[in-house]
Amino acid sequence: MRARRYVTAAWDIGMTQDAFERWMREALSMVEQRLSLWVPFSAPAGLGEAMRYGVLDGGKRLRPLLVLASCEAVDGDVEAALRAAVSVELIHAYSLVHDDMPCMDNDVLRRGKPTVHVRFGEAGAMLAGDAMQALAFEVLTPEQGLAPELQARLCGLLSRAAGHGGMAGGQAIDLASTGLTLDEAGLRDMHYRKTGVLLRASVLMGAATGACSATAWAALTEFGDAIGLAFQVVDDILDVTQPSEKLGKTAGKDLHANKPTYVTVLGLTEARRQVQVLHGQAQDALMRSGLADAGRLRLLADMVVERDS
Amino acid sequence: MRARRYVTAAWDIGMTQDAFERWMREALSMVEQRLSLWVPFSAPAGLGEAMRYGVLDGGKRLRPLLVLASCEAVDGDVEAALRAAVSVELIHAYSLVHDDMPCMDNDVLRRGKPTVHVRFGEAGAMLAGDAMQALAFEVLTPEQGLAPELQARLCGLLSRAAGHGGMAGGQAIDLASTGLTLDEAGLRDMHYRKTGVLLRASVLMGAATGACSATAWAALTEFGDAIGLAFQVVDDILDVTQPSEKLGKTAGKDLHANKPTYVTVLGLTEARRQVQVLHGQAQDALMRSGLADAGRLRLLADMVVERDS
């Protein structure tokens, strides 16, 4: 399954699987630390508690890892990238909090725990999500320590990925698609907006923290698009092939909700083939980026397509 | 009722009521035009329609007017101020959309129309609100035409006013306060966060578009705090003294929801006296700002305390 065709390429020397795993442990530890530092205990009337519940102690942190790997690829500013990483994760986590609510997917299990509205009530969950979105932009605009030009650029990338043209737009299509027959193009558009745009933004926000040529920027955009779509196709596959305990969320729910997925539209075999095609596109894009230190991004792409939960 | 003590002061010459009303009509027209331009028709699956429904054709636009008046007071950049004005109104409007939902205030009438969730469903309303918050930051981060330093500053001011330390935090206190007895300090803190912080941010975002001394900034902060609190106390008064038709929203709802208000805590007479005290504080702060062209802000403060809907 695993496509290893670039593993001996010159640009990849120096990033062994061991070194990657060490880096990943360190990166995850820094991200958790910053999340814990920046998501407030002190917000009033239980709001801080609900926000922390919604974002701490769970999740694979794929988006923060993409930000940090991309930062390394352009030899960027790690402190800036940590702010970007936390802001992207806050947007992702708030979308899960709102998405799980009864008026949306009505889900009671997330990351192996009761969802935020089960624990804090619907109003508490809605407000926690709202405050998490605002906090993402607070984290990107500190009074000092981050150049204003970079603050502006990161806020621009994140807001466009989160909004009507990206994630929120994808959720709206998803909502409207229940019981509909989408063709592959329609499905691709929905998945692209719902998940792909924020994954791409993660890669680009990391790249914005360093010097990145127009060629590398374009290649990283393609890389982000490919793994973004691959991620969602894998999600569709896991939804029907893995049990809830493994996923930490309710399995088979798209199927039961009569929502179009890559599996229902293309079948399992073709969906798996699509993942391999997208994986290849992601690897090609990284090659074309000309970035010497893109090994972490390549290995993250491997993780995205090979994950089983 | 109307406090006119500064009307002949030198700094105020040149802003007659007529000139103010002319300016206000022009300002409102520009704000509506920009809202219509920047809130997308094109967002997918009815999302754009719900966003436009939630923010266009209604509302007094007090926050945008404060941004623009404050911009005039510092001889700021009107194009930048229009972006700030629209972004603040988007945050305000999204908060109303979410606040009206069944899990919060469960209100069916807003600005004389059915609320967004009545018209577009609960999931549609939640997503529209989410996308409106993201759009506020999109509007503040255009690819060109607004200096990055100012983009960053405006994003910082807006996110902090919208988030857990401001509006969302105030909503959380409000939610938790039903049936509780708050003292005046507790009530002030709730009102301050829920409404005051965003009104203050409106004034400061306008001031950020021009040159503003530290003295003027501090004075405008005090001005924003005073009218922010006054606005909410007036709201509490109108909730019990005006019918729904006049307000364009359900009257008496705080009373029926058993929520503490300035009227229930202090009584109507003392609440009215507080409004006058805050009005005086706002006027004093403007005097101390040393800004020559603060007449529009003064007249907006008059409007805030004298409004009957």
How do you describe this structure in short?
The structure is a homodimer of 309-residue chains. The first copy, chain A, is mainly alpha-helical. Chain A contains 14 helices and two strands, in the order H-H-H-H-E-E-H-H-H-H-H-H-H-H-H-H.
Which labels suit this protein?
homodimer, 309 residues, mainly alpha, Farnesyl Diphosphate Synthase, two-stranded antiparallel sheet, 14 helices, 70% helix, globular
Task: Characterise this structure.
The structure is a homodimer of 309-residue chains. Chain A is globular, with a radius of gyration of 19 Å. Chain A contains 14 helices and two strands, in the order ααααββαααααααααα. The first copy, chain A, is 70% helix and 1% strand. Chain A has one domain (10-306): Farnesyl Diphosphate Synthase (Orthogonal Bundle), CATH 1.10.600.10. With 309 residues, chain A is an all-alpha fold. At the A-B interface, α2, α4, α5, α6 and α7 of A face α2, α4, α5, α6 and α7 of B.
Described by the principal axes of the CA atoms, the overall outline of chain A is: globular
Structural class of chain A: mainly alpha
Provide the β-strand percentage band of chain A: under 5%
Distance between the termini of chain A: 17 Å
Largest interface: A-B, 57 and 57 residues
Calculate the mean pLDDT score of chain A and round it.
90
**What's the main sheet of chain A like?**
2 strands, antiparallel
Helix % of chain A is 55-70%
